[in-house]
Specification:
Layout: H1 14-36, H2 44-50, E1 56-64, E2 73-82, E3 88-100, H3 104-112, H4 118-121, E4 131-136, E5 141-149, E6 159-171, E7 174-189, E8 198-206, E9 212-216, E10 224-226, H5 231-235, H6 240-248, E11 254-257, H7 259-268, E12 273-276, E13 279-282, H8 286-299, E14 305-307, H9 315-322, H10 332-347, E15 355-356, H11 365-373, E16 378-382, E17 397-399, E18 405-409, H12 411-414, H13 424-444, E19 451-454, H14 462-474, E20 481-484, H15 486-491, H16 510-513, H17 519-536, H18 543-556, H19 565-583, E21 586-588, E22 594-597, E23 600-609, E24 615-624, E25 630-632, E26 638-645, E27 649-659, E28 663-673, E29 678-690, H20 694-728, H21 751-758, E30 794-795
Helix pairs in contact: 3-13, 6-8, 6-14, 7-8, 7-10, 9-11, 13-14, 17-18, 17-19, 18-19
């Protein structure tokens, strides 16, 4: 950013500044002269090379007030730590006021400097405004506090000043005073309100990583199942998300919310389960979730809320890797629609869904196309992507064509708190640098009203959120800025000189491209979506499956997976495996080989539904691979029958078959949806055809008749033999009944045989049923656990 003209028009007393610098030089002259009398002291430049001014680490932990006015006392506290190997003696901590910064580039340069430079760091204030430390051993730290009235600093014109805290001392190897450590910060000086104030829009993101799985309970409430219970730590007092809500409630910010986070926390307020290996244990953090949602509901009521598409999809990954995978882009529009309804239902506010936010505000033409395909007409970019070659910071909003507005956030302000803010020294420096940049923006063009946007990191830590809040509170006096919101910033009049050109694809940062989701991720999502589309058409309560899995697929393309390749792949796999497990609950029961005896029969195939809801719109197709030997439905090679099964039940579907020749016939059974797509795996079995002709039947009948006659003859011979044995035994007793005498014309030996011929059917065995009961033919409803296959050698119905 070229800002060479910053502050040039605001300097009001160059003569005064020259006099002050000359006085500083004269004050330093006696000290320099004194050093010349020390015989062992080398030249200053040589001394700095021999013992750098970073021997002692100086940390500035607090600076108050952050934006002083006349009459204030500036108080700075911190710590000095001896990082060298020698003891420092006769040490003194001093405050040094450097020069006023001429532009924003100088502010960044000061923040990067480390070593002491006599000409640039100013003279030590000295006197009562210093702290003496007689001895500082190696590795030892000492605290200090400096308190200086503002009028003693010699501040003249409004602007941003360099402020340094240094430690001067001696060591055994260099027994003369020299600066052994220094830390610099920035001091905004604007005691009176400016005529034109910069409008500052600060985005306050509520975004988290994925915690909710696609799995739900089988109860009516569909109890959600979480991948882990780590979100509770973020919601609990002192947690990252709890701090963001508590701090944001007191600040003039624009809330940027991922609706998936709201839905996840809302699910935690009721019964939920957590995965622990293969087990599911009850979740126990309902109270924490309720408290967080209640606090957020109150915090956002008077503020603007922007809802990102559901689960915050990675727009750059979609543009660079996913757009060539069929169906990937179709998720964006539904994700935007469900985002609006989710926020409105849970937070009771109507959010804006007109904004898209690519990672780090980095854009190229393909990202803009993807971002606007979901209905957004405003894209949050950053000025290290869309660069302005201007000597000042223009308004954030500018048209980029096609009815799309780019809201270009300020990169320096947006990245100000990305470091380790748990260290007080880092936080203090970051806050002062942020305030310095905002004042510098206002003083670049004092007569021009401008609107800037700050888009911080997506998931700031609790410490980073605290530092952000400290900086925003410091601006509350509104001496050079005033708060605004994102909708107002997007509607501000664009600067005519600001660039409206979107950078080409080659300028997209390579470090960001390396962290994008791979093409394989979008291919896996397509497989899952295709499976879901094929599954939902047979369900009578499709929403119980479509909603959790649709949201899970959205989570699979979340920005939060960047740089987390293995967890992202594991989540995608878990979603796909669970969906396949559900689809396999509707399946064909395996059959053993069948035997068909005769010209016609019925072939049963059992379909099982172990889901808790009914299934319909299914068709069972049975195919004969040898239709010349075995045909279905009176002459076709294949036959289809509709299938509708109640939840937890089975159904036996029977096909009519006719045989033309003996031999084995492989059969294939396959379920299809009504639109002709295969459902599940095919099942194969063999029908053994064994046809019985009329001639064979006559031979068999004749054989049975001969066997019957032979049995009758054997019976009469045994009876005659018994009668002869009785006659040979003698006359019967008086009490015995006399044997009936045969009538005239009767032939005793021939009578039994004649009786048999007179009633030939009396000795004929009972005829077999034409349709015997088949033990392998399952009943139409076998219940939820009827999964046993048919028995070996089963016969079909005829």
């Amino acid at each position: 950013m070229a800002e060479a003209a910053d502050f040039q028009s605001t300097s009001r007393s160059p003569a005064r500044r020259w006099l002050r610098r000359a006085a500083s030089a004269l004050m330093g002259a006696p000290l320099l002269a004194g050093l010349l009398y020390v015989p062992t002291a080398p030249p200053a430049s040589a001394a700095e090379k021999a013992s750098p001014s970073r021997t002692v680490d100086v940390s500035l932990d607090t600076l108050a007030p952050t934006t002083p006015v006349e009459g204030d006392t500036l108080t700075i506290s911190g710590t000095v730590t001896n990082r060298g190997k020698e003891t420092v003696s006769a040490a003194q901590v001093d405050l040094r006021l450097g020069s006023r910064m001429g532009n924003r580039g100088e502010i960044d340069a000061v923040a990067k400097r480390t070593g002491f430079t006599p000409g640039d760091d100013g003279a030590a204030l000295g006197g009562p405004y210093s702290v003496k430390i007689p001895k500082l051993a190696a590795g030892i730290s000492k605290d200090f506090t400096l308190a200086v009235p503002v009028e003693k600093l010699g501040l003249d014109d409004e602007g941003v000043y360099q402020l340094g805290v240094s430690l001067t001392g001696r060591t055994a190897s260099a027994r003369y005073d020299r600066v052994l450590g220094i830390e610099r910060t920035l001091l905004p000086w604007q005691p009176e309100a400016t005529a034109k104030k910069t409008q500052v829009t600060y985005l306050w993101p509520l975004i988290s990583s994925t915690h909710l799985s696609a799995e739900t309970g089988s109860d009516d409430q569909q109890t959600p199942v979480f991948e882990d219970d780590e979100l509770a730590a973020e919601l609990a007092p002192g947690g990252r998300l709890e701090r963001l809500v508590a701090l944001g409630a007191e600040l003039p910010v624009t809330w940027v919310v991922d609706p998936d986070l709201l839905a996840t926390v809302d699910a935690m307020t009721r019964n939920y389960q957590v995965k622990e290996g293969d087990e599911r244990v009850p979740g126990r953090n309902q109270a924490i979730a309720k408290q967080w949602l209640n606090s957020l509901d109150k915090a956002v009521q008077d503020d603007k809320v922007v809802a990102l598409p559901y689960a915050d999809p990675d727009l750059a990954s979609l543009a660079h890797r996913g757009k060539d995978v069929s169906g990937s882009l179709s998720h964006l529009q539904p994700a935007t629609e469900v985002a609006e309804s989710t926020v409105e239902t849970i937070l009771h506010v109507k959010p804006s869904v007109d904004f898209a936010w690519p990672v780090d505000g980095a854009v190229d033409p393909s990202i803009i196309d993807i971002a606007t395909s979901a209905g957004a007409d405003k894209v949050i970019a950053r000025n290290d992507s869309i660069r302005d070659e201007l000597p000042y910071t223009p308004n954030a909003a500018r048209p980029i064509g096609g009815g799309t507005t780019a809201v270009v956030a300020d990169a320096s302000l947006s990245t100000a708190f990305e470091g380790d803010m748990t260290r007080a020294g880092n936080s203090t420096l970051a806050v002062q640098q942020f305030l310095a940049h905002t004042l510098a923006v206002t003083q670049q063009q004092p007569g021009m009203l401008r609107s800037i946007v700050v888009a911080p990191q997506r998931m700031p830590t609790a410490a980073q959120a605290q530092s952000m809040a400290t900086a925003l509170r410091a601006l509350s006096a509104q001496r050079w800025s005033q708060p605004s919101d994102l909708l107002t910033a997007a509607a501000a009049k664009p600067d005519d000189r600001a660039t409206t050109k979107v950078p080409g694809a080659r300028k997209y940062p390579a470090k960001l491209r390396k962290r994008e989701l791979p093409v394989q991720a979008f291919q896996a999502m397509k497989v899952t979506q295709d499976t879901l589309d094929n599954f939902k058409v047979i369900l009578t309560m499709a929403s119980r499956v479509v909603t959790p899995f649709g949201n899970a697929i959205n989570r699979e393309m979340s920005t939060s997976w960047r740089g987390r390749t293995e967890p992202a792949a594991a989540y995608r796999q878990s979603v796909q495996v669970h969906l396949l497990d559900l689809t396999s609950e509707v399946q064909l029961i395996e059959k053993s080989d069948l035997t068909l005896s005769g010209r016609s029969a019925t072939i049963p195939v059992t379909v099982q539904n172990q889901l808790l809801q009914d299934v319909e719109h299914l068709v069972l197709r049975l195919t004969s691979t040898k239709p010349t030997r075995l045909k279905l439905n009176g002459g076709d090679a294949a036959a289809e029958l509709p299938v509708t099964i109640a939840g937890g039940h089975s159904q036996s579907v029977k096909f009519t078959a006719s045989a033309n020749a003996n031999g084995p016939v492989p059969m294939t059974a396959q379920l299809y949806t009504e639109d002709g797509k295969p459902y599940g795996k095919p099942m194969t079995f063999t029908v053994k055809v064994s046809e019985i002709t009329p001639t064979v039947m006559l031979v068999i009948a004749g054989g049975f008749l001969l066997l019957a006659l032979a049995g009758i003859r054997m019976y009469t011979h045994r009876k005659r033999a018994a009668a002869r044995d009785a006659d040979a035994a003698g006359t019967p007793d008086a009490g015995d009944a006399p044997e009936a005498e045969p009538q005239a014309g009767d032939d005793p030996e021939a009578a039994p045989e004649d009786d048999a011929e007179a009633d030939p059917d009396a000795a004929r065995p009972a005829a077999r049923s034409d349709e015997p009961e088949q033990p392998s033919d399952p009943t139409p409803d076998t219940g939820a656990q009827s999964t046993d296959p048919s028995g070996q050698g089963e016969k079909v119905d005829r």
